[in-house]
Each structure stands twice: as structure tokens, then as C-alpha cells.
């Protein structure tokens, strides 16, 4: 599969993740407004991929002219929880004084590094999973999408599955459907099918029951922001998974590049949690499914305390707060 996000012919080219799994097609984004819209409606998503989007967005703005720093701030603010988006923007801005070509070269370096760093992080994590889980082959549980589609081209948490599958060590992956936009059922399941990895999709609410039945050897998730103390912000439902895993003695492993660590935050209480449109819960395919006027609590992310996490793993190995 091609990169999730790339640069070609003067445009940012992304795989449109809102169309999967029914339709695989590419979008060419030629304005900053188009990029911001793609980020906000999750056509491109996943913390590492957003880092690439932020860097390429600055490169695009630099080539178009205008107020590049104002455009950069629009991009960085498009989604508040994932630290990688602003990180990518700020990294590309360091080259602004050297001209548009230098900014683009830096953005392209971000893309290349992301693939390499996630391969390394997931390889480290695979070793930790094998050390923590004696059963073979392994039964793994995935939440949201932390595969190729969430990164530039390899995957963080799902990258662990690729490493283990190559060695014949995966029995199956239980895939949480993942509210609110079903990134597990739509995207992770699609990636696993493409790779020939056995999987089953389950409702988010079934995860604890699966652990109680002894169906899960390890939980693997990515991260959108990691606080200095090791608290992890990730897709809503991750916190509940970690509580269930701790109760059942199931290892809980977080995999992400070090750019996801926000050392400015002492702990997870400082993470800004994005709230999604109420219609994601009150409607299905444009048809109302709740009583008119129903109030909604629809956070996109939650924060899992470090005490519930077996290991946070980056390209440098196990993260030590």
C-alpha cells in the first residue's frame, strides 16, 4: 500500500480514509483550507500521519505565498488533542527562512523518518509483548486504528502485529469497532484483511467480556499524546480497556513515536480533549436514532493513567517517565 500521506505534483496527496473500506481513492489537496477540512473530517487521521500533514501543510502554504505563519496556526489548531500535528507544523516552520524548497525538504524528511521510527518502535514493542505473553500463537486486541493508515506508511500498535505475523506468532486480532466513527471496523479490519492476518470485529462493549473469557493475551493501542509522567491520551474507550486489562491481568502496551510525547505536560490532566459533533451519535446514515433534542457527550479521546499501562514504547524502546 502507498503512503497514507505524501507530496506529488505540488499537492498533498492522501488516502481518503472516510471512503474506506468500500472505496479506495486518493485526494489531492492544493490549498490550506482543503487540508484543514481533510483533517477535521478525518480524511487523514492518526497522530503520526497528522505530524506529516502538519509539516506538508506548512510546505504547501510556503509555496502558495501569503501569511504562512497564520496558515500554519490554522493547520495546527485543526485538531487539538494529537500533539504530532503542531509538532509537524513547528518543525517545518524552522526552515521557513530558507525558502519554500527547504520547508518542503524538511516536511519530506518528516515522512521518511515517521516510517522508520514506527518500524523501530513496533519492533521494540513486539519484543516486549513476547516477553510479557508466554502463550503462542498470540491473541491480540486492537482499539481504533494504529496501523499504516494512522501513520505515514507502517503503523505503530498495528505495526507490532505486522512484526509478529511475519514470524507466524499471531492467532488472531480482536478488533474493537471503535466509536464514534468505527475506525476499528472500517480501517483496522481492512488493513488486517489486506495483510492476511486473522481477525474478528467486536463491539467496544465486548472487550472486557473477551478478556474475562481468556480470549486476549495482550492489548495493543497507539497514542495521540503522551504526558511526561506516562499518562496516555488515545481514542475514547482506551481508558476503559486499560481498567479491564488490569483487572484480568492482561498486558496493556502503548506504541507511538517519540514525537507523541509532550514533555510540557506533567500529566494527562492537561490534555485538551476534542469533542465531536453530536450528530455522530444522534444520527445513523442521516436518520435520527435518538429522541429529538437529546443531549450528547461525545469525546473523541480519553486519558489512561500511567499506572494502568504495562509499557509505553517508542523508537527508543520502553519510555521511562
Write up this protein.
- The protein is of the alpha/beta class and 321 residues long.
- It folds into 2 domains: 5-114, translation initiation factor eif-2b, domain 1 (Four Helix Bundle (Hemerythrin (Met), subunit A), Up-down Bundle), CATH 1.20.120; 132-318, Rossmann fold (3-Layer(aba) Sandwich), CATH 3.40.50.
- 39% of the residues lie in helices and 19% in strands.
- The chain is built from 10 helices and 16 strands.
- The chain has helices at 32-40, 47-64, 68-76, 83-93, 100-132, 157-166, 183-195, 207-212, 238-248, 279-282; strands at 5-8, 11-15, 26-29, 138-142, 170-176, 199-202, 218-221, 225-227, 232-235, 252-255, 261-262, 283-284, 287-288, 301-304, 311-314, 317-318.
- The strands form 4 sheets. Strands 6-5-4-7-10-15-16 form a 7-stranded mixed beta sheet, sandwiched between helices. The protein has a 4-stranded mixed beta sheet with strand order 11-8-9-14, covered by helices on one side.
- It is globular, with a radius of gyration of 19 Å.
- The chain starts with a strand and ends with a strand.
- The mean pLDDT is 97.
Average pLDDT level: 97
Distance between the termini: 35 Å
Report Rg: 19 Å
> Which CATH architecture of the largest domain?
3-Layer(aba) Sandwich
* Total discrete domains: 2
What are its keywords?
single chain; 321 residues; alpha/beta; Four Helix Bundle (Hemerythrin (Met), subunit A); Rossmann fold; 2 domains; seven-stranded mixed beta sheet; four-stranded mixed beta sheet; 16 strands; 39% helix; globular
Amino acid at each position: 500500500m502507498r503512503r497514507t500521506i505524501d507530496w506529488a505534483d505540488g499537492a498533498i496527496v492522501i488516502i481518503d480514509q472516510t471512503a474506506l473500506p468500500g472505496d479506495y481513492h486518493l485526494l489531492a489537496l492544493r490549498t490550506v483550507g482543503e487540508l484543514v477540512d481533510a483533517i477535521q473530517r478525518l480524511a487523514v487521521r492518526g497522530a503520526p500521519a497528522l505530524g506529516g500533514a502538519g509539516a506538508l501543510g506548512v510546505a504547501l502554504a510556503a509555496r502558495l505565498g501569503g501569511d504562512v505563519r497564520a496558515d500554519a496556526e490554522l493547520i495546527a489548531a485543526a485538531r487539538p488533542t494529537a500533539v504530532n500535528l503542531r509538532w509537524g507544523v513547528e518543525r517545518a516552520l524552522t526552515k521557513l527562512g530558507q525558502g519554500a524548497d527547504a520547508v518542503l525538504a524538511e516536511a519530506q524528511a518528516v515522512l521518511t523518518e515517521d516510517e522508520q521510527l514506527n518500524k523501530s518502535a513496533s519492533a521494540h514493542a513486539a519484543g516486549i509483548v513476547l516477553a510479557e505473553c508466554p502463550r503462542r500463537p498470540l491473541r491480540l486486541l486492537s482499539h481504533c486504528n494504529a496501523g499504516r493508515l494512522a501513520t505515514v506508511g507502517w503503523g505503530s500498535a498495528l505495526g507490532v502485529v505486522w512484526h509478529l505475523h511475519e514470524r507466524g506468532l499471531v492467532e488472531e486480532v480482536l478488533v474493537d469497532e471503535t466509536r464514534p466513527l468505527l475506525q476499528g471496523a472500517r480501517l483496522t479490519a481492512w488493513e488486517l484483511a489486506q495483510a492476511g492476518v486473522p481477525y474478528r470485529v467486536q463491539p467496544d462493549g465486548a472487550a472486557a467480556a473477551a478478556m474475562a473469557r481468556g480470549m486476549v493475551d495482550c492489548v495493543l493501542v497507539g497514542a495521540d499524546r503522551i504526558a511526561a509522567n506516562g499518562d496516555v491520551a488515545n481514542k475514547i474507550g482506551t481508558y476503559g480497556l486499560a481498567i479491564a486489562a488490569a483487572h484480568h491481568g492482561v498486558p496493556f502496551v502503548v506504541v507511538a513515536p517519540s514525537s507523541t510525547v509532550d514533555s510540557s505536560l506533567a500529566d494527562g490532566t492537561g490534555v485538551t480533549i476534542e469533542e465531536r459533533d453530536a450528530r455522530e451519535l444522534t444520527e445513523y446514515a442521516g436518520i435520527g436514532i435518538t429522541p429529538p433534542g437529546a443531549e450528547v457527550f461525545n469525546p473523541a479521546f480519553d486519558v489512561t493513567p500511567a499506572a494502568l499501562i504495562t509499557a509505553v514504547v517508542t523508537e527508543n524502546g520502553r519510555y521511562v517517565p
